[in-house]
Specification:
Layout: H1 2-7, H2 17-43, H3 45-48, H4 73-76, H5 78-106, H6 111-135, H7 140-163
Helix pairs in contact: 2-5, 2-7, 5-6, 6-7
Length: 178
């Protein structure tokens, strides 16, 4: 998608550097969030802690660092894995919202601003599906939808990031000396 976005005709020049960087950060956050979601699914953490917005009755649940050494909790403790996935989701949501607002302020009405809005809406839909999946105690169809939309968010975020950079330079003619 990134290469295709670079090859497609662009109606706008490249966005400013901070817009490009924030769009790139969203790609990275989405990729990390998909990884964290894989840990949640692998540990069946959504079946154990299926309340929202509180988790285990608290904003920050207790017993997050039960395992020794402490780093194992980030990979093997279902409560910690789901907590980190939630924090990642909140972070991605806030950064996507910030990116949308900042892009509209810096470049109102541009393709970059419209794509930033669509990206935020995709993140919002993904968050809603994730919360619904959790509250419904992870029915398979919801879990698969959550995973599928995550890939759509990642793909669109990557295409948006590439779009902020403008089109690839056009090929130039090479003079052949004979």
């Amino acid at each position: 998608m990134v290469v295709a976005r670079g090859l497609a005709p662009h109606s706008e020049p490249a966005a400013d550097r901070s817009t490009q960087r924030l769009a790139g950060l969203i790609v990275l956050l989405a990729l990390v969030q998909i990884y964290l979601g894989g840990l949640v699914a692998g540990l069946h953490a959504g079946l154990s802690y299926n309340t929202w917005p509180l988790m285990d009755g608290k904003v920050i649940p207790s017993d997050l660092l039960l395992l020794e050494p402490a780093w194992r909790n980030f990979f093997e403790n279902p409560k910690m894995v789901q907590f980190v996935h939630r924090v990642g989701a909140y972070t991605l949501f806030v950064v996507a919202l910030w990116h949308m607002i900042a892009t509209w302020r810096r470049q109102p009405g541009t393709t970059h601003a419209r794509r930033a809005t669509l990206l935020f809406l995709l993140v919002l839909v993904q968050a809603s599906i994730g919360i619904g999946t959790l509250l419904m105690q992870v029915p398979l169809h919801m879990a698969l939808t959550h995973q599928g939309v995550a890939l759509m968010v990642l793909g669109f975020a990557a295409a948006h990031w590439r779009g902020t950079k403008g089109a690839y330079p056009l090929p130039t003619e090479i003079a052949v000396r004979g």
